[in-house]
Write a structure and sequence with these properties.
The protein has 528 residues and is an alpha/beta fold. Helices cover 47% and strands 14% of the residues. The protein has three domains: 278 residues, Rossmann fold, CATH 3.40.50.620; 124 residues, Four Helix Bundle (Hemerythrin (Met), subunit A) (Up-down Bundle), CATH 1.20.120.640; 51 residues, no CATH class. The chain binds one RNA strand of 76 nucleotides through strand 3, helix 1, helix 5, strand 9 and helix 7.
Length: 528
Amino acid sequence: MSPKTAPTASSPQKAGLPAGWLALERTPSPIRVYNTLSRSKGVFEPAEAGHVRIYACGVTPYAEAHIGHARPALIWSVIRKYLEWRGYRVTLVQNFTDVDDKIIQRARERGEDPVELAARYSEQYLSAMRRLGIRGADYYPKVSQHIPDIIAMISGLIERGIAYEVGGDVFFDVSRFPDYGKLSGQRLEELMAGTRFEADERKRSPMDFALWKAAKPGEPAWESPWGPGRPGWHIECSAMSLKYLGNGFDFHGGGMDLVFPHHENEIAQSEAYTGQQPFVRFWVHNGLVNMGAEKMSKSLGNVVSIDELLARYPAPLLRFLLLSTHYRSPLEFSDSALAEATRGWRRLNSAVHRLEQFLRDHGGLPGALAGPGDVARWRAELDGEGARYLDGLVSVPERFDAAMADDFNTAAALAVLFDLARETNGFREQLVRRGKPAPAAVEVLGGALALFRLFGGELLGVLGAEEAGAPDQPALVDNLVQLLLDVRREARERRDWATADRIRDRLRELGIVVEDTPAGSRWRMADG
RNA sequence: GGCGCAGUAGCCAAGGGGCUAAGGCGGGAGUCUGCAAAACUCCUAUUCGGCGGUUCGAGUCCGCCCUGCGCCUCCA
């Protein structure tokens, strides 16, 4: 059970949570998580004190990663960061099923080696996730590197009389596992009645599934007690999760479409093998990403690749869109959804950027951390308005925590950030209007920035980009626009409104929006 | 056919027995600004697909129905 042989382990980082009032000082909310197995929310405590063990079903790397793959990866990376903020150590494992029928088929079509093809797409997937700002798992085990573990598990199942070999294939005997169907709510009789495919004659029951497949000519194969072959689908997740996390780990995640048969079969294999239950304490399934009304899937050919999206949209915006819907709900992905998300996302970010600007202008300390002593001092120094704002600020960690603790409700957590943005904009504007803000007020706003950075930046990763100007534009564009704005400023100083408006209107026609602020004019690219 | 998930304002979307049904987008009215944009303030669901039931009390629980989606064959 030692994970030291992990192929592509990234070193777990420390949570690095700030001290003081930014961390949760009041009673943390009990973490409640929806469990597919019980079809209800249950209070979560890790089986091993202080340590949360998670296995998230990864991908079969035979094509480019699409946005549907990003959802679970993003969710689990956010969940792990939240749990770490709550003070847990987290071990996250995500597999690559790099030995598989589809990979073999694709490789054959292209005249490529299947293992190489899988390796290439695995890298592509990891790169796409990195660019989405998704913090990696601790281990990314691959089937091709765990064949001995899988063979050992299959052998164990045969010894216990739960699996049987026929002509080089090994099948799991579902009749030997009375709980079969407990995850998906299916009954064995119904499943067999509904069988729509032609069953392999050699199987004892049509529902028996392959643990090991005998090699056909030209397929990648490994030696085994049953002759050359390769693992069936399902067994790899049982073998690798047990290897890296041990039995009875905390969360097993994956898309809703994996509930049956994949996870059902995993439970059957694993619990039959260990003789103990539960194999997994919480089964967590995310809703699918739809294109229009239909599921996005490679077989339907309606996928949007992450590379395409990243070429057109900033990663934090894509994360914002994905996190705006609770993870269990289906999410419709479309240009209009993207356009609407952009408007909300921009307001959140512009609140942060203006706050940063304010702090620069007033010598504030961006992200200044504060202890309870500071809060008390601020409260004494602030006027009524300031104290009211401070009260709202102090409640943010608690409210954010309550949202996330309730089945990792990122949509509700984002609402907390929108509240913070509105209140911060209001308070900041009021200070600007009155002029000469009190030092305590500036410090409080420094604290607000720290909250944005912790929750919006560190934990959810929805902040960034979209500064004034347009970062992706060449410096020449920036300089030219700046030149026009200088000319316009001079016109405005002369009260030559006609010229000033003409410059603004013409730029607008070119897709550049000019906004005048007390600190000068700024520009950005229009939506587009 | 079986199993499962969902239907909340014009749109997106939280909430899942009892405080005025979060938040975002859009729309309306105001404040500020040369005008605009942005921002802020107020307004925008007597009601949660339909019909019954349980309960002192139901978007919230139960039953039936309607609609959409997913799984039962590879899928995150």
